[in-house]
What we know:
Two copies of one chain form a homodimer. Chain A is of the alpha/beta class.
Amino acid sequence: MLEAKTEIIAVGSELLLGQIVNSNAQFLSKQLAEIGINVYYHTVVGDNAERLKQAIKTAQERANIIIFTGGLGPTKDDLTKETIADVLGKKLVTNEEALANIQDFFDKTKRVMSENNKKQAIVLEDAEVLKNETGMAPGMGVEVDGRFYILLPGPPSEMKPMFTNYGQQFLIDKLGIQDKIISRVLRYFGIGESKLETDIEDIIDAQTNPTIAPLASNDEVTLRLTAKHTDEAEAMKLLDEMEEKINARVGEYCYGYEQTTIMGELKKLLHEKNLTIAAAESLTGGLFSEQLTAIEGASQIFKGSIICYTNEVKEQLLKVSSGTLENEGAVSAACATEMADNIREITGSDIGISFTGVAGPDSLERHPVGTVFIGISMTDRETEVHEINWAGSRNAVRTRTVKFGCHYVMQMLK
Amino acid sequence: MLEAKTEIIAVGSELLLGQIVNSNAQFLSKQLAEIGINVYYHTVVGDNAERLKQAIKTAQERANIIIFTGGLGPTKDDLTKETIADVLGKKLVTNEEALANIQDFFDKTKRVMSENNKKQAIVLEDAEVLKNETGMAPGMGVEVDGRFYILLPGPPSEMKPMFTNYGQQFLIDKLGIQDKIISRVLRYFGIGESKLETDIEDIIDAQTNPTIAPLASNDEVTLRLTAKHTDEAEAMKLLDEMEEKINARVGEYCYGYEQTTIMGELKKLLHEKNLTIAAAESLTGGLFSEQLTAIEGASQIFKGSIICYTNEVKEQLLKVSSGTLENEGAVSAACATEMADNIREITGSDIGISFTGVAGPDSLERHPVGTVFIGISMTDRETEVHEINWAGSRNAVRTRTVKFGCHYVMQMLK
């Protein structure tokens, strides 16, 4: 197999003006890494034929795979394929299928196609046309003098599906890549990154296939397992075995796979057990309820919440006793307990969860910023209260509080 | 003045693996555009001395300002300054001030400085040292053979303040930039982009100084005015005059400046008028209250809310009459009115706002997705209800609903 040296060239003056970030290069780099193709350079150049030409020549000296994004549209500024054709000494020809696709696009939106749109159906001769399923301009893949050139549109909504569905396969075929590479992300909560890495240190040190990549962010740790095998089923088996080995040690903290969230897993669990939840939110100001209802499928598990930002609302609407508020304060285990119990009863839900504490920037009732009480009330069980103290911004405190709330409810239900 | 041709070189293998996006290049491009400096290329290269050396040589052929980010840290991978020193034939020397700063950093965090950290205090001879106020590794600016080289650290939290506070001034001084360039962003809500542009078309067409750049996103339109003048006060005057000219036509839709939000402006107005607000949230599920309390300073204007996701909660907790729910339905002007009136009374607030409607994905009570009623109740005024119908995802419907809610309250208060 050819030793891949890839350069990704993004064409567009809007990148050089800082109006947008080059997220296309990041996406492509990630996708290429997953099939074992090295990326050596990213380049950004403006909508300028002369500078683009020079950039292509520079890339030819140092790369054997050159991927372009942007400049395939219908306007005068779009000059990527014309410039590449010029450098490679290739003709441009109209692709009938692409033209029909563009015509179809206008028909569907009931607009008349202007003449300049036909320009988008023009492709490099001998190129493999990469279909644009979410837009008009087709992409291309072509081999010239032992180098591979791939042309992709600039808008990420068009570029991403085109590369995933067609561009990647073009490279796999042309480079004769045999291995299937499959990844799986395991998500952990309630365990710190260093503790997790220490617990499985010998497994990480001995990794070969699958590889193990830990990543910590937003109070969570993920492990990305990546297995390589010519047979997809075998690669999957390697992942299964590694997952089992790791989770024999730290499985109690593993809450899900891939892009799931703790809130998403809590919702799944509530649906499975056919339970409803309601919240009494003070410092979180509605964040728990908002996240619970942000994604569809909340109406069977959620009736409503009370946001009680003042003691007045805690007392009158949520029926927290004035004695508790006077003697213990709003930021107290006693208040969290009453809030959780009462919201459950008031709404007739199976579970009541409460959040009270100090989000900051000022301290409250002599508690420092970051003091939080989370109460969880369930039928026929003693109400649990978790006191937590953490550092961080107002936003971080609120977000962590909601995550830990979900985590504690799941622990009680399991 | 030298005609600036800038290349920004980001050094770091994590960029080529797609683990992070090159947001540094975007930030620097924007900052450079604001002082009138052209950026012609962005390059990303890995932590590899040979390839970095070649990238520097390529940049020397096509640029006269070369800005590096990344590779100034203490580890073996960090080789930016060593490689540049090599290409430029410059010595590396220890900078005592930088060394003291690093020592100070360790003292403050009560850790012992390991030997490799001293490497960070080494700088190119003859370079102007750019102070790192948020980290350890200092930056550098140096002129060699008519080209300007600027070295900045990779972490955005260090790079951004260093460039804004020192790097930009280095360029302004060295290039003899006389003009001050000042921007002002005007924010509009409740008017579409095309309507706004049509209303001020002749002003946009005649723009010279200030320039006018419209941008639409998330139901808002912004106009960025940028004025240039050797005298800052004169540049400011140009902005004032242009703002007045534009807002003589579309001022009723202009709600604020720069990075403000509609929620932020509503909060400001409530504080000014010393008023409190409470919400009854159905389809928005807590989003209004969450946004209201996300940023500090809500406790004087906000007592609490009821999230009433089911008719049961609307009836029992929010006291919406069963007649209204049976005859008109939960998605109705009548229900929105009662919700707004009742939440105001229950919480003893000056203003009650209600949100009821269909967020999707399924229709409700035979109303299509996107049907929304917003109710606003104030003391001594007739309760207003706004019916809106819009297309979009669940998330888009909820977000727009909250924005329009803020907008309507502000209109009533003005």
